[in-house]
């Protein structure tokens, strides 16, 4: 053979040759190669023809490599060991967790026992120590915008709408109740002396990203105050001049301090589904998949 270009076909023949040698013969290699004896023999003869040397002797004495066959095997063993190390290194580079992960969150979820983000971050930092985390806190509608635009890899919130092009993964639900602050005319009034007609006569707070849907039950033309986050709503309600919804976990310490009370909790309450929003079409990196997996695991095991 004057010249041989190594291509896929030759690599397959080399692998077959090595398997036969390491199995100790054609018959012994049948199971591993899942080929018939005649097919193995044909391929072996083809390789000998391509190389221009006889690789083995077969007969009553069994399978035995020729001197040339042993030299070819030894050389191929070194070549394939090098290829295996190369493949392992490439896989390591591919799977290495580096870069930056940008996460979007809504405000004031720190007190929510259903959302153990700190445990997620602990596990993520241990598993991907070279990844930089960037966390942005924004209203849900802005989070959706920035996931679509690619500024965020993913966002976690209760989202006001479904945006085409995004995938949503359910995590948990957050309970919201309707609150009144100390000093408000309804604060000391028993629930059996309060109804919706009475409530709608007072100043009501709405969340801008819900488009006033959270006060639809009161059948008023417009809210008296609009906020983009929970802290803004809480400050208005705590002033004793406004009424509005807050997450129950966020309101809990103010209730214990005697500064808030829930009004008509059997009527004025709703559950917000929290989800991960991620782009449907944009290829997800191992870093994004790892964070999403850890988040689901921690929430499932809480």
UniProtKB/TrEMBL annotation:
User: InterPro entries from the xrefs?
Assistant: LysR_HTH_N (IPR000847), LysR_subst-bd (IPR005119), WH-like_DNA-bd_sf (IPR036388), WH_DNA-bd_sf (IPR036390)
Is Transcription regulation tagged as a keyword? yes
Give UniProt keywords alphabetically: DNA-binding, Plasmid, Transcription, Transcription regulation
Which CDD domains does the record match to this protein? PBP2_LTTR_substrate
Cross-referenced PROSITE patterns: HTH_LYSR
All residue ranges annotated as the HTH lysR-type domain in the record? 10-66
* One function term, GO molecular function aspect: DNA-binding transcription factor activity
| Residue runs in coiled coils | none
User: Which PANTHER family does this entry report, sorted A to Z?
Assistant: HTH-TYPE TRANSCRIPTIONAL ACTIVATOR BAUR, HTH-TYPE TRANSCRIPTIONAL REGULATOR
The similarity annotation says: Belongs to the LysR transcriptional regulatory family.
Q: What name does the UniProt record give this protein?
A: LysR family transcriptional regulator
């Amino acid at each position: 053979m004057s010249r041989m270009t190594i291509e896929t076909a030759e690599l397959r023949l080399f692998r077959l040759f090595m398997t036969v040698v390491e199995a100790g013969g054609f018959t012994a290699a049948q199971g591993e190669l899942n080929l018939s004896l005649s097919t193995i023999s044909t391929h072996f003869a083809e390789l000998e023809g391509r190389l221009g040397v006889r690789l083995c002797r077969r007969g009553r004495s069994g399978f035995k490599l020729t001197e040339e066959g042993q030299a070819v095997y030894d050389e191929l063993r070194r070549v394939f060991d090098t290829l295996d190390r190369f493949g392992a290194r490439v896989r390591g580079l591919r799977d290495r967790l580096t870069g930056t992960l940008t996460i979007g969150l809504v405000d004031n979820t720190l007190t929510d026992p259903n959302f153990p983000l700190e445990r997620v971050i602990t596990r993520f930092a241990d598993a991907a120590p070279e990844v930089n985390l960037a966390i942005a806190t924004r209203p849900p509608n802005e989070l959706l915008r920035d996931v679509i635009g690619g500024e965020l890899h993913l966002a976690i919130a209760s989202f006001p709408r479904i945006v085409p092009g995004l995938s949503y993964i359910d995590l948990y639900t957050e309970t919201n109740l309707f609150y009144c602050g100390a000093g408000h005319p309804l604060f000391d009034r028993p629930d059996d002396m309060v109804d919706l007609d009475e409530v709608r006569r007072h100043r009501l707070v709405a969340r801008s990203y819900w488009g006033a849907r959270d006060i639809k039950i009161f059948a008023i033309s417009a809210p008296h105050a609009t906020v983009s986050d929970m802290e803004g709503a809480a400050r208005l309600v705590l002033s004793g001049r406004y009424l509005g919804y807050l997450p129950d976990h966020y309101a809990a310490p103010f209730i214990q301090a005697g500064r808030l009370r829930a009004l008509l909790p059997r009527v004025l309450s709703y559950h917000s589904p929290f989800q991960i929003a991620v782009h449907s079409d944009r290829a997800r990196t191992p870093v994004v998949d790892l964070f999403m997996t850890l988040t689901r695991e921690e929430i499932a095991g809480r």
